[in-house]
Description:
The chain is 65% helix and 2% strand. The chain is mainly α.
Amino acid sequence: MARATARDSEEFCAFVAARSGSLFRVAYLIIGDHQLAQDLVQESLAKTYVAWPRLRDVANAEAYTRRVIATTAISWRRRRGFHERAAAHLPEPVQPDPAGATVLHDALWSCLRDLPPRQRTAIVLRHYLDLTEAQTAETMGCSVGAVKSSVSTGLRRLRARVGSDLEVRASDDEVVHP
C-alpha cells in the first residue's frame, strides 16, 4: 500500500482548493441538501486522499472524486436513517414550563379564594368534582336554582379577574402571566 508523500499532500491540497466548489455543486445536485452536500464532499475528499497515491493520472482526480461522491450518495440513501430529516417543529407537544403552571395555579387559587364561600363551594362541587346541579344542591343543602345562581355569579367574577388568554389580573395595574 502506497503512502502519501509530502508532494502528494501538496498536490491534493491544490486539487481541493481548485476543485472543491465544483465538487460541492455536483454533490448538491445529487443529494439536494446543502449541509448533506458539504458532508458528502468532505467524506468523498477523505476517500480520495486515501486513494491519492494510487491514482495513476492526477488529472483524472476530479472524475475519480465525482465517482466517489456518486457512490457514497447511493450508499447513504440505502441506509435506514437517511430519509429521516430534522423537522423545524417537533411533532410531540411541548410541555409548558412547570414554573409558569405553578404561578398560574397559585394565581387562580387566589382568585377562587377571593370568592364568597357559597360561590366558591358551588364552583368547586360543580366543576372540580363534576357533580350535577342536583347533586351540588343536595350537598350544599339548597335549591338547584341557588346552585345555578351561585355558579353563574362566581364564574362571572372569576372571568373578570382571569383574561381570555389566562392572564390573572391581581389588581388594575398588575397582570400575572403563566
